[in-house]
Amino acid sequence: MERKPLIAGNWKMNLDLDEAVSLVNAIADSISGFQEVDVLVAPPFTALTAVKQAIGNSKILLGGQNMHWEMSGAFTGEISGKMLQEIGCTHIILGHSERRMLFGETSEVIDLKVKSAVALGLVPILCIGETIEQKEAGQTFEVIEDQLVASLKNFRVNKDLPPSTVLAYEPVWAIGTGLTATPEQAQEVHYFIRKWVENNFDSKLAQQIRILYGGSVKPDNVKELMSETDIDGALVGGASLKSDSFVRLIRFQEV
Ligand code: PGA
Q1: Which of 68, 91, 96, 190 is catalytic?
Q2: Domains of the chain
Q3: How far is the CA of 236 from the centre of ligand 1 (A)?
Q4: Whether pTM exceeds 0.70
Q5: Catalytic residue status for 2
């Protein structure tokens, strides 16, 4: 099954409004007419409206970086998926390791968020990944499985996870560190994740679902990573903040 690659930029808490708009304009210019890869940007909340406007008719997809699972209510400081959808987001990053580690998000909370996103018609980009301690203790597969089981609990009951769902394997030790999993290491985990989807849902869904790799993806390692069978794209932090490096990632086939 052919899965269209997805290159997603997670801008995290970076860029001011002018920078955000210039970056998305530059991306739109350089990929005009380019259909081979889906491209997504996830700006900070405050830049979403301006970035949406700048995207205009370009095919760039817009994602949020986090959301609350309720539609509205007394949740000071939170943003709902519905609000994000209202300003043009079609995707939502959920369970990023920074949310899990710095803001105490558990897989149980992430499960609620994935459920709410899907109910709204937002495409979840669900992140999973092990820490360096877990990797060194040989627990990578166990951790990944536990996170998948708990973060997709709601969907395993009815076996109704939409095929558009995106999973992102992001080894925590590779995020922002310059250390990347080797293509072989990443492929091994991606294969494991796809098998897990097959065993817990079905083989059709396992073949349809896109699994991104994230963690220090750069123009000089993207092509090798993307050549692996089960790697369908990249979730990129640092290298998504500059148009030249991000565009080189999008055009990885030409590198
Ligand atoms: P990085 O971040 O590319 O800067 O390692 C990836 C991520 O956190 O999604």
Answers
A1: 96
A2: 6-254 (3.20.20.70)
A3: 5
A4: yes
A5: no
CA of residue 249 to ligand 1 center, whole Å: 13
Rounded distance, CA 96 to CA 114, Å?
A: 12
Whole-Å CA distances, 156 to 1, 148, 214, 215? 23, 10, 25, 27
> Which string of DSSP letters, residue by residue, matches 97-127?
HHHHHHS---HHHHHHHHHHHHHHTPEEEEE
Residue 170 CB less than 6 A away from ligand 1? yes
Token pair of 222, please? 């993207």
**What are the CA-CA distances from residue 130 to residues 72, 214, 229 (Å)?**
32, 12, 21
* Amino acid sitting at position 170: E
Query: Quick one: what percent of the chain has pLDDT higher than 90?
Result: 93
pLDDT in tens, 34-50: 999 999 999 999 999 99
Query: In angstroms, rounded to a whole number, what is the distance separating the alpha carbons of residues 147 and 171?
Result: 13
The amino acid that residue 54 corresponds to is A
Residue 170: active-site member: yes
CA dihedral 202→93→222→182, nearest 10 degrees, is -70
Tell me the best of 41, 169, 172, 217 to mutate to test the pocket of ligand 1, counting ligand atoms within 8 Å of each CB and taking the most.
217
Cα–Cα nearest to 54, from 35, 29, 34, 82: 29
Say yes or no to pLDDT of 1 above 70: no
With a CB cutoff of 8 Å and minimum separation 6, the contacts of 211 are: 166, 167, 168, 169, 190, 193, 194, 230, 231, 232
